[in-house]
Design a protein that fits this description.
Elements (H helix, E strand, L loop, with lengths): L2 E4 L2 E4 L3 H13 L4 E6 L1 H9 L1 H9 L2 E4 L2 H9 L10 H14 L4 E5 L2 H14 L5 E5 L8 H14 L3 E5 L4 H13 L2 E4 L3 H5 L8 H5 L3 H8 L1 H25 L7
Keywords: Glycosyltransferase, Transferase
Pfam family, one: Glyco_tran_WecG
Protein name: Glycosyltransferase
Length: about 250
């Protein structure tokens, strides 16, 4: 499988099905791995923070979560069939985990979201075993608190940990904790709110048009307007400049 570099961030060319297959293979084998679902926001964050870029590039899979990334991959010679959307992949992985009796855990978000997700996700993935669910405080944890959470996740026997802490916190957490927990950690972000039924997903036509950001901005203008006013123009201009300066495909 090929990978494409976009503004210094590696993206792996995979379909949603291929990604889910790989994640389940790792989980069944008891491996410690982590995967990120990255978009234009992730790339702009990585431009400003080399340590975050390193967390993405060290991931066992860094997948194209947004259509803007998919288009850039194709423009650079990549054979990327579609976006590997975090919420869709989380549900696909959950269904396959249920079928294979692979236990999973939830880490992140608020107690309300975690409680609703713990009840609702098995309805969409019948037979899913959620063996642990932790909502950490929205602040840096002390070393003792962090170690207690790691121990809970290890003791639970979870082979997959869905992580919903938001970008860039969740990707850093996965990079720092996958080996300590000994499981496959997936940074899926807003998937927690979507599958808990607390946030509407953009219609499919807007997702395919690369306009999910506009839909989410309309839903949460106060929280997101600063992010998108910074991310969208910078990503468009930076990627256009890179393609002019490096016209040959960046396949690996």
């Amino acid at each position: 499988m090929s990978a494409i570099s976009i503004l210094g961030v590696r993206f792996d060319a995979r379909s949603t099905g291929q990604s889910a297959d790989q994640i389940l293979d790792w989980a069944r084998a008891g491996e410690a791995r982590y995967a990120c679902f990255s978009n234009a926001h992730s790339v702009v964050e990585a431009l400003d923070d080399p340590s975050f870029a390193d967390a993405l590039n060290r991931a066992d899979l860094n997948l194209p979560d947004g259509m803007s990334i998919v288009r850039e991959m194709r423009a650079r010679g990549g054979d990327q069939p579609d976006r590997v959307y975090g919420p869709d992949t989380m549900l696909e992985v959950a269904r396959r985990a249920a079928g294979d009796a692979v236990p999973v855990a939830l880490y992140g978000s608020s107690p309300e979201v975690i409680d609703r997700l713990r009840r609702r996700l098995p309805l969409r993935a019948p037979g899913l075993r959620i063996v642990e669910a932790i909502s950490p405080p929205f602040r840096p944890l002390s070393p003792e608190e962090d170690e207690a959470d790691v121990q809970r996740l290890r003791d639970s026997g979870a082979r997959i940990v869905f992580v919903g802490l938001g970008c860039p916190r969740q990707e850093r957490w996965c990079a720092d904790h996958a080996d300590r927990i000994g499981a496959v950690c997936l940074g899926v972000g807003a998937a927690f709110d979507f599958h808990a039924g607390l946030l509407r997903q953009a219609p499919a036509v807007l997702q395919q048009a690369g306009l999910e950001w506009a839909f989410r901005l309309a839903m949460e203008p106060r929280r997101l307007w600063r992010r998108y006013s910074r991310v969208v123009p910078r990503f468009v201009l930076s990627t256009a400049r890179e393609r002019v300066l490096q016209p040959s495909p960046s396949l690996t």
